[in-house]
Write a sequence for this structure.
């Protein structure tokens, strides 16, 4: 009996020593769980239905952050609600992906391309409006819509939709866990290699699936898919700003319905975080 108790305490002690990984959002949870398979447990802080753009921490969330051995988040560019709580944690137990130079380079490159594309669209729109409003004196800049893309002048930190950034995130998680749990270094390396192989295979599978519809235009309710769209050459037409104030939403929807009736585009990509009213 005494021997069994000692064994039980030893097992319990080992499980407590293991590093639980806590990710801020589900997409990072998928990446982390692939690396921690057979090593330790991965948990996700936010509920699946919650958005990192407007989430408020609960006391139980703070407890999870404090008890986790490794907290993985993108950074205050995406999860601003976490910034103050993260600052209170020891640096060695936090992995901030936006601080990874290679990931930051991907985001910076995408941001510059987005700004260039938006500038081109803005000039084209201005020229078009000027052509049809030449009878008016001066230029009315109040009519220009500068927020038809939610992140047009901000950095896009939806990095899990970039296969390159996802792979870099997996490498960072693996490296940090290998430091914290050197006894599992071989298994972590095996998981990382498996993740990369699966990612390569999935990229080829997705590219094949999307090939027949690449030319089809589609609308989204959230400007979050830029990395995915560029990687697979998709034809995103416009992002409908449904999360803005209701009067603006209603006006934009009326305009959108007219546009949709005139076009042959019938593909829509909703956001699961939108609340139905």
């Amino acid at each position: 009996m005494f021997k069994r108790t000692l064994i039980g305490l030893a097992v319990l002690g080992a499980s407590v020593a293991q590093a639980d990984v806590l990710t801020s959002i589900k997409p990072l949870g998928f990446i982390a769980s692939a690396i921690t398979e057979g090593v330790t447990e991965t948990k996700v802080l936010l509920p699946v239905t919650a958005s990192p753009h407007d989430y408020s921490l609960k006391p139980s969330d703070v407890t999870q952050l404090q008890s986790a051995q490794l907290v993985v988040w993108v950074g205050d560019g995406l999860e601003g609600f976490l910034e103050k709580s993260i600052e209170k944690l020891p640096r060695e137990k936090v992995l901030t992906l936006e601080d990874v130079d290679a990931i930051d380079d991907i985001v910076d490159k995408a941001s510059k391309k987005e700004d260039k594309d938006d500038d081109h669209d803005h000039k084209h729109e201005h020229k078009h409006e000027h052509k049809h409003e030449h009878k008016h004196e001066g230029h009315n800049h109040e009519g220009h819509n500068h927020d038809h893309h939610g992140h047009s002048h901000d950095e896009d930190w939806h990095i899990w939709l970039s296969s390159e950034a996802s792979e870099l995130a997996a490498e960072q998680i693996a490296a940090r866990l290998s430091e914290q749990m050197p006894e599992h270094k071989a298994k972590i390396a095996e998981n990382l290699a498996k993740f990369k192989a699966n990612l390569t295979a999935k990229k080829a599978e997705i590219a094949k699936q999307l090939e027949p519809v690449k030319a089809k235009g589609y609308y989204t309710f959230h400007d979050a898919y830029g990395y995915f769209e560029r990687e697979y050459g998709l034809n995103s037409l416009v992002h409908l700003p449904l999360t803005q104030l209701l009067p603006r939403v209603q006006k934009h929807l009326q305009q959108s319905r007219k546009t949709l009736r005139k076009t042959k585009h019938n593909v829509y990509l909703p956001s699961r975080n939108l609340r139905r009213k």
